[in-house]
Amino acid sequence: MDTLDTLQVVRELAAAQVGATVDTIDVDVTADSLGLDSLDFLEFLFALEDKLKIRIPHEAVATVKTLRDLAAVIDGLIAAAPPVAPPAAPPVAPPAAS
Amino acid sequence: MPRVVVTGLGVVSPLGQTIDVFVESLRAARSGITLVPSSLNSGEHALVAGLVPFDPAKHWPAHRVAQHDRATQLALVAAAQALAHANVGDTRSHIGVYWGTGFGGAASIEESYRLFYLDGGRMRPTSVVLAMSNAAAGNISIVNRLRGPILNVSTACSSSASAIGEAFRAIKHGYADAILAGGSDAPITGANLRAWDAMQAIAHADPVDASRSCKPFALDRKGIVLGEGAGALLLEREDHAIARGARIIAELAGYGNRADAVHISRPDPEGQAAAMRAALGESGLESDSIGYVNAHGTATQVGDVAETTAIKDVFGSVPPPVSSTKSLHGHLMGAAGIVEFLAALVALEHGFLPPTAHLDLPDPACDLDYVPNVARAASIDAVMSNSFGFGGMNAVLLARRYAA
């Protein structure tokens, strides 16, 4: 299994989120300066969760400023709890038929 | 009281994704109704719908496509067409947006529930702004920098007719110089189709020719065929349009809005007739000056008879020709009002009455001149368009040939 290059995945998904090419994504500037507004940033995190099969709690990214910061946080999350499949049962049962 | 005129048009529909193609489809009575793919229909009956072969990738890059529900995408394209057609240019911050929709972001709503129930309770961060009923109106305003009054109208099948009517009033009474009015819906989803089928309101596919499944006013009509689409028009106060040298397409002369107050889904002729009379009364036109009525005509057993009764009640012994273009494009729900009003404007401008297609077996209970099957050349000066929504929401628009 290849070692996960978290920073590269983060860069690629950020590029996709703003419709730019990867080489234009600077990992050491703020998300805002990359064209990711607050809603875009949340969508970007959602895409990362899908891609890496992890959950990124909002508190964990509260102090993140750059993509490099984000990759470091994600590496920490993966080290603490390796990726798992999503739970089989939904948290809320669909409404019962009446 | 100032007059209100139409200066730009736009459409994305099962009959074409530009006004030119829309006109030719109506003239040729070309049906845009097709079988629903099995990916959306797992039931035992073949279903049909008025689908638009719309490819968002032709309009936006992938990351922008993901930001809008399909209904909003259709709306944005129709709105852009109308603004370009009206030659608005860069002077646009005064323009308002009055938009109608029945379902809002239907596919996005369904996808949200799929994720929630089947994917561990996850939710896309943009779930709210994709799904919300006013997403189309908001995005039209944002993309086009329109800062006039803004309203999202949801009155089921009469949503965009009401939106146009309310825009008409806002301009007449001095609340805006110009408003982009219209509507959109993209309700063809797996769950929606099941919901409508559960009401036994929709037609199953015609066994011989799916494109002929919608048969308003015919003896063998089997119910509604759902559709998707968007339409837009720019309404302006007359002096404002003249001052900027706009081409005036028609005058919006009347808007009638009345409730049935009878039943949540069954239509009633009295409320419909009252709305038609209100529109006529406002316009000052006599009923015999109306050259064509675009009917609501959904092809339900009860609805087509109710509307026939209402039209006879209003127009007396010599009613004008009436047709339901839903026979060709289906029931576009929140976009029905605008797209059918556009069809009525086409009749006015292009000199032909669009037909009620697939009317081979007349119903004795529906005995008006429905312009059966073939478009008819006609030079007319005023048109009426009916939209009657669930909940007894009746909206009627009247347009007439513009004369300075």
Model description:
The complex is a heterodimer of chains A (98) and B (404). The mean pLDDT of chain A is 87. In chain A, 43% of the residues lie in helices and 0% in strands. With 98 residues, chain A is mainly alpha-helical. Chain A is globular, with a radius of gyration of 15 Å. Chain B is α/β, with parallel strands linked by helices. Chain B is built from 13 helices and 14 strands. In chain B, the strands form 3 sheets. Chain B has a 10-stranded mixed β-sheet, sandwiched between helices. In chain B, strand 13 and strand 14 form a beta hairpin. The longest helix of chain B is centred in the N-terminal third of the chain and has 16 residues. Chain B is globular, with a radius of gyration of 20 Å. At the A-B interface, helix 1 and helix 2 of A face helix 2 and helix 4 of B.
